[in-house]
Amino acid sequence: MTDLDALTLDDGEAVGVRVVGARHAGVVFERARLVDVQLVRCDLSGCDFSETVWQRVTLTDCRCSSIELAQSSLRDVTFEDCKLDDANLRLAKLHNVVFDATVLTAADLAGAQLDTVRFPESDLRAADVSNVRCAQVDLRDAQLDGLKGIASLRGATIGIDQLFGLAPAIAHALGITVASEGRDDDG
Predict the structure, then answer these.
(1) 53 φ, ψ (degrees, to nearest 5)
(2) What is the pLDDT of residue 108?
(3) Superfamily of segment(s) 2-173
(4) In Å, what is the CA distance from 74 to each residue of 30, 36, 97, 147?
(5) Of 147, 121, 148, 126, which is closest to residue 138 (Cα–Cα)?
(6) Mean pLDDT over residues 68-93, rounded?
(7) Which of 51, 69, 115, 164 stands 20 to 30 A from 45 (CA)?
């Protein structure tokens, strides 16, 4: 693996590189292909990785606020201690992806396909999961307050301790009215 101080693409791809401390905020990497890449302590905030393909990629302690990953394909990817708040993963395909201790507040995952995806110790507060398709998605130990589109999480696993906090949103998604005890009669 080659060590670099910046992510560079050769004919639209990066293969077998380790990048440490790169600052690429706002750079466009649209339709790129990343294979066997390690990104460590990089700033990728606002970068456009739309329609990219990532295979065997690891990001550690990276800042990726407002990153664009719409319609991308991520396979065997790990985000560890990263910040992906306001990230756009709309219509992305994720297979065997781990978001470990990663901030995904207000992330847009609408329409994404999630297959074998885990979120241990991650923050998904206010994320949009509308119309996601889930297969073997593990949300245990993640912060899930204010999730949008919760009805789309069919097939996902949550912890029993998370159920109470999600109950109002689940009831709303199912059209269930929750009322206080007793009947309210006018007559």
Answers:
(1) -120, 125
(2) 98
(3) E3 ubiquitin-protein ligase SopA (2.160.20.80)
(4) 14, 12, 7, 22
(5) 121
(6) 98
(7) 115
Show me where the domains of the chain are located.
2-173
CB-based contact 142:165 (threshold 8 Å): no
Per-residue pLDDT at 187 exceeds 70: no
What DSSP designation does 38 have?
E
**Tokens representing residue 145 in the block:** 């307050």
Cα separation, 49 vs 52, whole angstroms: 6
| Average pLDDT score over residue span 67-88 | 98
Question: How wide is the angle at C-alpha 26 spanned by C-alphas 20 and 27, nearest 5°?
Answer: 70
- One-letter amino acid of 173: A
Q: In b/e form, how buried is each residue of 156-184, taking b as 16+ CB within 10 angstroms?
A: bebeeebeeebeebeeeeeeeeeeeeeee
Q: Give the mean pLDDT of the chain.
A: 92
Residue 31 vs residues 14, 54, 118, 187: alpha-carbon distances, Å: 12, 10, 25, 66
- 3-24 burial: b if 16+ Cβ within 10 Å, else e: eeeebeeeeeebeebebeebeb
Strands 13-20, 2-4: pairing is: parallel
